[in-house]
Design goal:
Elements (H helix, E strand, L loop, with lengths): L2 E5 L3 E6 L3 H18 L10 E6 L2 H7 L2 H8 L10 E3 L3 E5 L1 H7 L6 H6 L1 H14 L9 H9 L1 H12 L6 H11 L11 H16 L1 H8 L7 H9 L3 H17 L1
Parallel strand pairs: 2-3, 3-5
Antiparallel strand pairs: 1-2, 4-5
Helix pairs in contact: 6-8, 8-10, 8-11, 10-11, 11-12
Length: about 250
């Protein structure tokens, strides 16, 4: 199947010729998303190439960091690693491939359909953070893993995926035991966004956006105390109560 390019104001898409309509929808959604986040961050990168892969194996071969990130994640979260990113490109499964990847539980398809926004969120966060990728190297990938709760949590929250992930979160809580706070890398994709949701409810959207790009030299616990403006045991208690409420519902 020949590949062609489609274009919008801030993005271009490379995709199979049979998916022209799907590519146009992805580009329109990304333009709307970029406009939505412009007021939250100093930089919102433009001139970004979006490569839509029709098959998972092609996506995996294009980005060797992706299977490593999946391997770190809990089983309930692995299907949501449906893309990857560089400084100037987003690689993501095409809409039909995302639909095929979804499970039958409520919210899975909706969360996966937001994968292009998730990957673009990584570019926004990286462009505004002095410490987070892209670009990737062995050192920056190690930093990404160490700060996975923030990297993946911020992208999941900003893309609007967290509400759709609740069934997967419940599965993780039932299968995986008591999570760490902040979440360990194994839980970053599913539980990281819940920290940003909690902060947004307490202090507003801008406070959550600021947490995503704060300098990291003081460590995660000090970072969270500064973001929430209160002692960490209280934040952790409220976070765990929220997770418990999800499991009980």
């Amino acid at each position: 199947m020949p590949w062609i390019e489609s274009h919008s104001l801030s993005f271009s898409a490379r995709h199979e010729s049979s998916q022209r309509t799907e590519a146009a929808g992805v580009l329109a959604a990304l333009e709307d998303f970029r406009a939505d986040v412009e007021g939250l961050f100093e930089r919102t990168p433009g001139d970004i190439a979006v490569i839509l892969h029709a098959r998972s194996v092609a996506l995996t071969l294009a980005h060797p960091w992706l299977p490593l990130a999946r391997r770190v994640s809990a089983p309930a979260g692995r299907r949501y690693f449906a893309g990857w990113f560089t400084e100037t490109e987003i690689h993501v499964l095409s809409p039909p491939a995302l639909d095929a990847r979804a499970s039958k539980v409520e919210g899975s398809r909706e969360a996966l359909r937001l994968s292009p926004q998730h990957e673009y969120s990584h570019l926004v966060i990286g462009a505004n953070s002095p410490d987070l990728p892209p670009p990737f190297s062995y050192a920056s990938f190690r930093r990404y893993v160490r700060w996975a709760w923030l990297c993946e949590g911020a992208a999941t929250w900003l893309a609007g995926q967290t509400p759709h992930l609740r069934p997967a979160i419940v599965r993780r809580l039932r299968e995986g035991g008591r999570p760490e706070f902040p979440p360990a890398p194994v839980d970053a994709m599913l539980l990281g966004g819940t920290i940003f949701d909690l902060l947004e409810r307490e202090a507003g959207t801008r406070a959550a956006a600021e947490l995503a790009v704060r300098p990291l030299e003081r460590g995660p616990r000090s970072l969270l105390v500064d973001a929430f403006g209160r002692q960490l045991p209280g934040v952790e208690r409220d976070w765990r109560e929220e997770l418990d409420s999800l499991s009980a519902s």
